[in-house]
Amino acid sequence: MTHSHLEGVEEIARAMFDLFDQDKSGEIQRFEMEETLGKFGVKVTPEEFDLLMSELDPNGDGKVTFEEFLELLHKHNFTGN
Ligand SMILES: [Ca+2]
Ligand SMILES: [Ca+2]
Prior knowledge:
The protein is built from 4 helices and 2 strands; from the N terminus they run αβααβα. The chain is mainly alpha-helical.
């Protein structure tokens, strides 16, 4: 069984997304982002955090959907395209 390149990327993105989405609500809220980064020992200043959220959450509703997450990966060429 062969996976297309895009399917592989979506699988990785989904796994990463699930890691952040601790309450499995289907969206990453700010507190989840903060907690998950903290768990990995990543320290960001409030300014850096705001910048990160504005990247991840372009429509500014305070939640990152899987679509927004995937779009960011594409934007930064993590997909290799
Ligand atoms: Ca959530
Ligand atoms: Ca959003």
